[in-house]
Amino acid sequence: MKVIGINTSPRDGSNNKIAIQTALDVAAAKGAETEIFDTCKMNITGCQGDNYCKAHEGKCAIDDDMTKIYSAIEEADAIIFGSPIYFGNITGQGKLVLDRLYSYFMSEKHQKLFSNKKVSIIGTNGVAPKEACIPALNAVLEAFGMLGFQKGDVIDLPDNNDLKAIEGKEDQLTEAKTLGENLI
Ligand SMILES: Cc1cc2nc3c(=O)[nH]c(=O)nc-3n(C[C@H](O)[C@H](O)[C@H](O)COP(=O)(O)O)c2cc1C
Description:
It contains 6 helices and 5 strands; from the N terminus they run βαβαβααβαβα. With 184 residues, it is α/β, with parallel strands linked by helices. It has a single domain (2-181), classed as Flavodoxin domain (Rossmann fold), CATH 3.40.50.360. The chain has a 5-stranded parallel beta sheet, sandwiched between helices. Strand 1, helix 1 (15-29) and strand 2 (33-38) form a beta-alpha-beta unit. Helix 1 crosses helix 6 (170-181). The protein is globular. Bound molecules: flavin mononucleotide. Flavin mononucleotide is lined by residues 9, 11, 14-16, 84-88, 124-128, 160-161.
């Protein structure tokens, strides 16, 4: 069993990354192999919309660090996608990664491969209420659903502007742990 985390926060000390890692630790304690990707430290270009993938069995024409994430997604049994909320949406880096998954869209081979893989989403934010953040996170889950993945949990963890603020929030860490448990 392999569970991967896709962290799209650019910050060292990211609350989102801590939440993802907390969920992964639960999976690891149950015997899963885990890996986390810091996408802001990777060279990932935006989708060019050239539809090369549609004529090449879901393979993207761009040769950049996204190839590492493609391989990990194809090997994983479960995936956690995490993003801070930036102006009511996921981060730009998160959208870059998500758009590049378009290469899998309408690929029968990948729809079948992904049908046994569950995806869950973790958001972190500052002062906005959860209701303002959940729609953007749900939209990410819907995108994974369109690609054929099983839809798991969506959680948003507010009041996390300060670096590592989440470390003092037992309730939020418990939410992240539950999300991790539900992936196994
Ligand atoms: C460019 C930018 C836009 C932001 N927009 C929002 C927002 O719309 N709503 C909100 O509640 N917090 C917003 N925040 C705060 C972050 O969502 C919050 O600090 C989050 O917990 C950061 O996650 P991280 O610690 O994993 O980086 C914004 C922060 C930045 C830098």
